[in-house]
């Protein structure tokens, strides 16, 4: 019913192509995050789902209904704007009840539904306050409530947490997720913050330069990035990516990483997949998967140690051949000099150096 | 040593007063002096024809006789009523037309810049010239009658400016032509200032175009609307130049507004004591009206 299908969606603004052929199926009741850096086309995609922009090509389906040409007022989607677009000339109550009043619902129904929503969002005490001059955190909840009170089957959120302070953002992440579980709506959530996407979404659609890069659950996207962009973009810090050459060494297929040394032999499935790949590869592994070992094959000089509370980040080497490694703060860490390390065998990922695509073991 | 001023004692109101005193004296002289002079003359029967300078107007002292006279001055009252009528007709029409045009100009359309320039041109015309233009247009052999004759299929020769009712209509038409652009300009600025995402938010919540206009656009433009109406009401009350050139207040006194009436008794009848009384009375009434209107707006 409220599943969303984007079929061959293209959006051009004059000469500029903001979105190049997007195909995406969002299931009924799914929380889908559109994640990417600014200018990647995620907001354009969202605006087309809402009906604010017309696609240059392609179709948008809600369930089985083609809504491509349907004006935005008739799509019945809830939309939370990045800057909330609260009607500041009205009170909180007038904002919450706006949609219901415009639809001409009976006054008693408007009052009860508005009251319930206010109760749920903790806005009851503020109902008769003018919306102007409320704090950002409250405006944010009001913006969600104003759309949620209409009980839309599809809820679109455009970077709703980018303006609120860090502490409240954490609270809102949990709150939004529980709201969505409660209403069972299909939610599309645009963000450039991978932490938001990872914590809330059922699936993440990673976008870059108007192209959909990968769709998958947060763990799939984290563990098996399809290309170097996704590998670098997901995770904080992102995956370590080092240019290298495949070669036979020490009884297995290894990667020659130039100044770092030669890696340990690749695990079986990955080696099998790499056997048919071009020799020029990119060797990737998560900073969390680094093991320190004086006998390890790889080594780089320590540049900086960042200590951030529970974690410490070692920066090794610089430029093209730099590696970041994340450790729990309790672990003994080297203070200076050459650091020898290796990634956990299962954590190694290979990418084709020419195309950036992942080389995957089956 | 002891006479040197200490800055600590001087930096308060004392220094400020000394610095602004010349300007304050000047302002007082410009605003207060004419008011007092007018008040003085309004209490006398003095006229420049008496051969005496105005400081000696006390020789014609008649206390409140002028003020009593104006209460029963029918010509004054009908001029006031006519001025009110011009305001009541022109300002709402200018507002309606201006708002409608401004709404059209929010979105882009081909030729918008040219249309925009043409539309605001009347505002730039010197009012006296506009008066002369409309004087020519409304001649009985003029273009207005020509155009009307296209519809009636027979020659039309309405004597617009010689008919008491039609002359007033012609004058109002000129005023609407000239000042709708000002409304348009102010209201367009207001419309453009309504945030786009608020409109989108309202649309997504299911509001129809009319509902959006009434619940988002108009409330957001309230201040601008009040300013536009206030400017035009004040200006319409003072209507003079266009009208004076078109009809001279005539035929008879049929298009005499308050400004034209005061102008005529000042330059033709030269009863300056009475003129001063009228001017002061109007100033008083308008000030009270303005205070009342501002109090209402503040609510």
UniProtKB/TrEMBL annotation, chain A:
InterPro entries: AAA+_ATPase, ABC_transporter-like_ATP-bd, ABC_transpr_MalK/UgpC-like, Mo/tungstate-bd_C_term_dom, NA-bd_OB-fold, OB_MalK-like, P-loop_NTPase. The keyword ATP-binding applies. Gene3D superfamilies: 2.40.50.100, Nucleic acid-binding proteins, P-loop containing nucleotide triphosphate hydrolases. Keywords: ATP-binding, Nucleotide-binding, Transport. GO terms for cellular component: ATP-binding cassette (ABC) transporter complex, substrate-binding subunit-containing. Signal peptide: none annotated. This is ABC transporter ATP-binding protein. It comes from Tabrizicola oligotrophica.
Automatic annotation (TrEMBL), chain B:
It is found in: Cell membrane. The chain crosses the membrane at residues 21-41, 84-107, 114-135, 176-193, 271-294. One of its GO terms (biological process) is transmembrane transport. PROSITE patterns: ABC_TM1. It is a multi-pass membrane protein. It comes from the Bacteria. Keywords: Membrane, Transmembrane, Transmembrane helix, Transport. Its main location: membrane. Gene3D superfamilies: MetI-like (1.10.3720.10). Residues 80-293 form the ABC transmembrane type-1 domain. GO terms for cellular component: plasma membrane. Belongs to the binding-protein-dependent transport system permease family. This is Sugar ABC transporter permease.
């Amino acid at each position: 019913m409220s599943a969303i299908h984007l079929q061959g969606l293209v959006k051009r603004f004059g000469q500029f192509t903001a979105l190049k052929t997007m195909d995406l199926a969002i299931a009924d009741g799914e929380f889908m995050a559109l994640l990417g850096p600014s200018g990647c086309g995620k907001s354009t995609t969202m605006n087309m789902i809402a009906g604010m922009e017309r696609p240059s090509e392609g179709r948008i389906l809600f369930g089985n209904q083609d809504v491509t040409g349907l004006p935005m007022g008739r799509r019945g989607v809830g939309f939370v704007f990045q800057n909330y677009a609260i009607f500041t000339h009205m009170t909180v109550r007038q904002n919450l009840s706006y949609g219901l009043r415009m639809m001409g619902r009976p006054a008693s129904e408007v009052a009860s539904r508005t009251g319930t929503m206010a109760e749920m969002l903790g806005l009851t005490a503020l109902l008769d306050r003018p919306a102007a001059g409320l704090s950002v955190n409250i405006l944010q909840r009001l913006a969600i409530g104003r759309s949620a009170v209409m009980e839309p089957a599809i809820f679109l959120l455009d970077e709703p947490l980018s303006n609120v302070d860090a502490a409240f953002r954490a609270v809102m992440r949990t709150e939004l997720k529980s709201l969505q579980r409660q209403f069972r709506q299909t939610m599309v959530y645009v963000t450039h913050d991978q932490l938001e996407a990872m914590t809330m979404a059922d699936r993440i659609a990673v976008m870059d330069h108007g192209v959909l890069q990968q769709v998958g659950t947060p763990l799939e996207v984290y563990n098996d990035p399809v290309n170097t962009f996704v590998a670098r973009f997901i995770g904080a810090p992102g995956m370590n990516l080092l240019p290298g050459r495949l070669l036979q060494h020490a009884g297995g297929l290894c990667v020659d990483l130039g100044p770092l040394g030669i890696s340990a032999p690749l695990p079986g499935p990955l080696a099998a997949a790499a056997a048919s790949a071009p020799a020029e590869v990119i060797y990737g592994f998560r900073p969390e998967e680094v093991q320190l070992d004086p006998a390890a094959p790889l080594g780089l000089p320590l540049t900086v140690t960042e200590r951030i509370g529970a974690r410490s980040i070692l920066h090794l080497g610089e430029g093209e051949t730099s590696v970041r490694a994340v450790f729990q703060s309790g672990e003994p860490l080297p203070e200076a000099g050459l650091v020898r390390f290796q990634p956990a065998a299962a954590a190694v990922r290979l990418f084709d150096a020419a195309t950036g695509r992942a080389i995957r073991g089956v | 040593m002891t006479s040197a001023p200490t800055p600590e004692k001087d930096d308060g109101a004392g220094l400020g007063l000394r610095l602004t005193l010349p300007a304050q004296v000047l302002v007082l002289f410009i605003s207060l002096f004419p008011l007092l002079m007018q008040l003085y003359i309004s209490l006398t029967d003095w006229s420049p024809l008496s051969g005496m300078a105005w400081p000696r107007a006390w020789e014609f002292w008649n206390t409140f006789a002028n003020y009593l006279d104006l209460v029963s001055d029918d010509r004054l009252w009908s001029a006031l009523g006519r001025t009110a009528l011009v305001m009541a007709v022109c300002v709402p029409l200018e507002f309606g037309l201006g708002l409608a045009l401004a709404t059209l100009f929010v979105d882009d359309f081909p030729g918008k810049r040219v249309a925009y320039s043409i539309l605001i041109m009347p505002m730039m015309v010197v009012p006296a010239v506009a008066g002369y233009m409309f004087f020519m247009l409304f001649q009985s052999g003029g273009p207005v009658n020509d155009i009307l004759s296209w519809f009636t299929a027979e020659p039309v020769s309405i004597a617009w400016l010689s008919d008491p009712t039609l002359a007033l209509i012609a004058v109002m038409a000129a005023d609407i032509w000239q000042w709708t652009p000002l409304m348009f300009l102010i209201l367009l600025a207001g419309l453009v200032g309504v945030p786009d995402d608020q409109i989108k938010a309202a649309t997504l919540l299911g509001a129809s175009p009319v509902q959006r206009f009434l619940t988002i656009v108009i409330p957001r433009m309230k201040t601008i609307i009040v300013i536009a109406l206030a400017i035009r009401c004040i200006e319409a009350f003072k209507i003079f130049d266009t009208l004076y050139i078109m009809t001279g207040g005539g035929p008879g006194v049929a298009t005499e507004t308050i400004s034209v009436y005061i102008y005529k008794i000042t330059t033709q009848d030269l009863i300056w004591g009475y003129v001063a009384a009228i001017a002061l009375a109007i100033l008083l009434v308008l000030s009270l009206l303005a205070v009342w209107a501002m109090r209402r707006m503040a609510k």
